[in-house]
Every structure is written in structure tokens, then in C-alpha cells.
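Give me C-alpha cells for this 121-residue protein.
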Amino acid sequence: MDILIVESQGELGILWQRHLERHGMTVVRTDTRETAIGWLQNYAVDIIILDLFLSDGAALAVSDFANYKHPKAKVIFVTNTSFFSDGSIFAHCANACAFMPSAVPPEDLAALVEHCHMAEV
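Here you go.
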């Protein structure tokens, strides 16, 4: 399973990456919209873990580009705010499969990634 993590907080992204790799997943981590879209131009992924509020903004642009370029890729949105906590993210992003707080335990995130992936198989 190929995973792209787009997270501006480096330590958090590294924590998630290491945990997912221990579960046998192939993980690439980026920290900006620009690098994420650049990576998606050349490589396919199964799941994208995307911080809703990237330091350079425009997380929804990453989701939109992924939906265009890799329509089967699913996005797990994470955030440390209550914005979109009403579930409206699913109305805005066709490829959204989950919405979690950034403080999600890594083992729960790994289980969610596996669940989202299995839902597509």
C-alpha cells in the first residue's frame, strides 16, 4: 500500500510515517502543497493523509489534484481545529474517506488507513 503524508508539522509527520512503515506500508512524506502536488504528478498513491491546514495553505488543492490525477486515491483529512467538524468536508471533497484530529494515536491512524484501503478493494 502506497501512502502520501502531507503534514507541515515535521515531527508529527515523521511519527505517522514510521508507524505506518512498521505496518509494512510504503510511505512518502511532504510538508507543503507544492511538494505534494509535484509528487502526485509522477507517482500514484492509495491513501493520502492530508493536514487540512498546511503551513502554505491550499490543502484542498492537493485533494482536488489527487482526485483529478489519481481518482482511486482516498484522502484522510487531519486537523487540530474544529473547522469542518460538522462533516461538511465530505461534501467538498469527493475523495475524502475520513476526518480525524491531528492528535489521533498512530495505531488508530494505521487502522483507519487499512480500513479505507480495504473499502476500495
